[in-house]
Design goal:
Strand order of the largest sheet of chain B: 1-2
Helix content of chain A: 40-55%
Number of helices of chain A: 9
CATH class of the largest domain in chain A: Mainly Alpha
Strand content of chain B: under 5%
Low-confidence stretches of chain A: 11-24
Distance between the termini of chain B: 44 Å
CATH architecture of the largest domain in chain B: Up-down Bundle
Order of helices and strands of chain B: HHEHHHHHHHEHHHHHHHEEHH
Helix content of chain B: 55-70%
Subcellular location (chain A): Membrane
Largest sheet of chain B: 2 strands, antiparallel
CATH architecture of the largest domain in chain A: Orthogonal Bundle
Cofactor (chain A): heme c
Largest sheet of chain A: 2 strands, antiparallel
CATH class of the largest domain in chain B: Mainly Alpha
Keywords (chain A): Heme, Iron, Membrane, Metal-binding, Signal, Transmembrane, Transmembrane helix
Strand order of the largest sheet of chain A: 1-2
Number of domains of chain B: 2
Order of helices and strands of chain A: HHEHEHHHEEHEEHH
Radius of gyration of chain B: 26 Å
Oligomer: heterodimer
CATH topology of the largest domain in chain A: Cytochrome Bc1 Complex, Chain D, domain 2
Low-confidence stretches of chain B: none
CATH superfamily of the largest domain in chain A: Cytochrome c-like domain
InterPro entries (chain A): Cyt_c-like_dom, Cyt_c-like_dom_sf, Cyt_c1
Strand content of chain A: 15-25%
Shape of chain B: globular
GO molecular function (chain A): electron transfer activity; heme binding; metal ion binding
Number of helices of chain B: 18
Distance between the termini of chain A: 39 Å
Shape of chain A: globular
Largest interface: A-B, 45 and 43 residues
Chain lengths: ~250, ~475
């Protein structure tokens, strides 16, 4: 009986494995975890207001919440308030949404919870964003002149191209079921940006860390409170266990 | 009026106060005795008997957190998504209240599924507890309605398109369907009107029904007394009793089962808190990733799946294709043929069976498979109501049923779980096998298996030699 069950489970696993392997999309890179790294999050916030808030809102995120990642209200006012002069305001894009639709063919989505919404089978939302922001390439067949391996035909041109420079994907040819398929192999740097690839990956890591934090600013509090709650419950459980034993010890 | 109880002037202040209240509100004191201190529950409850109390606890959690959420939530298509983020960010401890409520929804179904399975294991729905079970099934149905309508409120993509898909199902009903769907939505598509009426149902109408049913469930239970893992009646006419007439196999609910349940509650809260604080999305199963995108009526998500607790039923809905309708027709022909040839019935009944089967087949061939999918999905829940009469086993508890009945239950649980898994997956999740969509074929076979388990129960539950049932419950002192 055990053998039958085991072989059945193995068969299920095999089927599931084949089903997963058949998907040909770009595998997501693992984003570095910077959620506890305040300088990285601050750098990410700087990149975010400089490169993203021009077009994208984070309409549920208030500027003064940035105090949670170690910035003072004065620092926020002096360095990060581009779209408003009130620190209690939310991060609303400078762009007019109807113009954005006209220029890019799509409304730039709100980024407040983007890191939460983009999770999937390929990894966390942070993994996706980390991959996406590092997968732009020049493509003259597109209206914006840009394309993206992680999000084919994306409406957004690479906002960080001055940092990253120009890159082109190199594809390897594979014979599969009698057809030639192109599989992504590596990036080829065509023109240098102001950052090296390693520096750029670092910067994107910070930016993605910030997006991840912004998706749920309470997440560090949540985990801290959770540890306390579980310790409390562990003690209570021991008490309840002994209380129960005390009442039931005479029940025959 | 009850007899006015005099108390000695020398009694303590506490006793005097209690006496003052008891003379003015004896109902409360009687209820406490009937349902708590003098409600005798079997001594031999095991781990499976915690889930009823836990369901009550989760109900309270949902109501209390719900009250606080409503203080900040805006049931308006333009504001709903933002108000949820406002709760998550700007309302002090709002994130905790919201996660408790969202995790509570899934926890509710987990404990209720386990609670129902306990009933199946020990035959808790058998005579004289049929009504307890029926009230319970009604609670399950109300809970499904509550969860479905609550899921629309965050107004994310999954909220929106899930509601769109499910409400559209009603439009598959012949003749009245389109009007019925319109009535539910209040509009031609899911919109502000839908959100407002779902909000109203979610926060007041369905909770009232739920509370009423829970009261009926508990009152009926306490009238007939709890079943137990041995399926023995501890309060039956021949059950052993002490000199005061209390059942020897029973024990007062309070304090014995209250302290028991406090331990269970602590363990449950540890698991519940672990999810709330460390994995509130539960890998996309409790909070779906897509639902962090605001509802967009112009952009259908690539893959729409209900939350996990609906997926076994959703799988059954998807399993009903035109081919599946033929399979169902074959089942009806076989059942009717068997009834006519083998059944010892007067010929008038046999005639009725033949005519009913013929009518059913004609309808099935002429109405779209989508409608039969809805019928199958609804039937999967409705069939639970009939369980007390489907189960014909001579003994209640699985402990004394023939051993192979355990495998029947095991296979049933396995099928239900695989259906649940497949309901989350996009169509074709397991690829093709011999030119067929493997996942769809499996869900079709398991759908038939699910119904076969119940509909054939009057036959298979009688088979085999039951083990001797003892006179007293099995209880080992702790």
């Amino acid at each position: 009986m055990k053998k039958i069950i085991l072989s059945f489970i193995a068969a299920l696993g095999l089927v599931a494995g084949v089903a997963h392997a058949s998907g040909g999309a770009l595998a997501w890179d693992k984003a570095p975890n910077r959620i506890n790294d305040l300088p990285a999050l601050q750098n990410g916030a700087k990149l975010f207001v400089n490169y993203c808030v021009g077009c994208h809102s984070a309409a549920f995120m208030r500027y003064n919440r940035l105090t949670d990642i170690g910035l003072t209200p004065q620092q926020i006012k002096d360095n990060l308030l581009f779209t408003t002069d009130k620190i209690g305001e939310t991060m609303v894009a400078a762009i007019d949404p109807s113009q954005a639709k006209e220029w890019f063919g799509a409304n730039p989505p709100d980024l407040t919870v983007i890191a939460r919404s983009r999770a999937g089978h390929g990894g966390t939302g942070a993994d996706y964003l980390y991959t996406f922001l590092r997968s732009f390439y020049r493509d003259d067949t597109k209206a914006t002149g840009w394309n993206n391996l992680a999000f084919p035909n994306v409406a957004m041109p690479n906002p960080l191209w001055q940092l990253q420079g120009d890159r082109q994907p190199v594809f390897a040819e594979h014979e599969s079921h009698g057809e030639t398929v192109h599989v992504f192999k590596a990036w080829e740097q065509k023109a240098a940006g102001t950052m090296t690839t390693a520096q750029y990956d670092e910067a994107i890591g910070d930016l993605v860390g910030y997006l991840q934090w912004m998706g749920e600013p309470a997440q560090k509090t949540r985990i801290r409170v959770g540890v306390g709650v579980l310790i409390f419950l562990a003690f209570t459980t021991v008490l309840a266990w002994r209380l129960n034993a005390a009442f039931w010890k005479d029940v025959k | 009026m009850a007899v006015f109880k005099e108390i000695s002037p020398n009694a303590s202040a506490g006793a005097k106060l209690t006496n003052w209240f008891e003379n003015r509100f004896p109902t409360a004191f009687d209820a406490y005795r009937v349902h708590m201190s003098e409600y005798y529950a079997p001594k031999n409850f095991n781990f499976w008997y915690i889930f009823g109390s836990l369901a009550l606890l989760v109900l309270v959690i949902q109501i209390v957190t719900g009250i606080f959420l409503v203080m900040h939530y805006k049931p308006d298509a333009a504001l709903a998504f933002g108000s949820v983020e406002y709760i998550m960010r700007d309302v002090p401890w709002g994130w905790l209240i919201r996660y408790m409520h969202s995790t509570g929804a899934s926890a509710f179904f987990i404990v209720v599924y386990l609670h129902m399975f306990r009933g199946l294991l020990y035959g808790s729905y058998r005579k004289p507890r049929e009504l307890v079970w029926i009230f319970g099934c009604a609670i399950f149905l109300a809970l499904m309605a509550e969860a479905f309508m609550g899921y629309l409120l965050p107004w994310g993509q999954m909220s929106y398109w899930g509601a769109q898909v499910i409400v559209n199902l009603f439009s598959a009903i012949p003749f009245v369907g389109p009007d019925l769907a319109l009535l539910i939505r209040g509009d031609y598509v899911v919109g502000d009107a839908t959100l407002n009426r779902f909000f109203s149902f979610h926060v007041i109408a369905v909770p009232l029904v739920l509370l009423g049913l829970v009261v009926a469930h508990l009152l009926a239970l306490h009238d007939v007394g709890s079943n137990n893992p041995d399926g023995i009646e501890i309060k039956g006419p021949n059950a052993p009793r002490d000199e005061k007439g209390h059942p020897l196999d029973g024990i007062p609910f309070h304090p014995y089962y209250t302290v028991h349940d406090i331990l269970g509650v602590c363990l449950f809260l540890m698991a519940f808190s672990a999810v709330i604080f460390f994995a509130p999305e539960a890998g996309g199963y409790f909070l779906e990733y897509n639902n962090f995108i605001p509802a967009n009526p112009f952009q259908t998500p690539a893959h729409i799946a209900p939350v996990w607790y609906f997926t076994p039923f959703y799988s059954m809905l998807r399993a009903v294709t035109t081919e599946m309708v033929y399979a169902l027709i074959a089942c009806i022909v076989a059942a009717a043929g068997f009834g006519v040839i083998k059944g010892k019935l007067p010929s008038i009944f046999k005639g009725v069976i033949v005519v009913a089967a013929a009518v059913a087949i004609v309808l099935m061939l002429n109405i779209d498979a989508k409608f039969w999918g809805v019928v199958v999905m609804g039937g999967a829940v409705v069939i639970l109501f009939f369980l007390p009469w489907l189960d014909q086993s001579p003994v209640k508890s699985i402990r004394y049923r023939p051993s192979w009945h355990k495998y029947m239950f095991g296979v049933f649980v396995f099928m239900f779980m695989v259906l649940g898994y497949l309901g989350i997956q996009p169509p074709g999740a397991w690829g093709a096998w011999a030119g067929q969509d493997l996942a769809q074929r499996v869900s079709q076979v398991f759908t038939l298996g699910y119904f076969g388990f119940f509909l054939l129960m009057p036959w298979w539950s009688r088979l085999g030699e039951p083990k001797p049932v003892p006179d007293r419950v099995n209880f080992a002192a702790h």
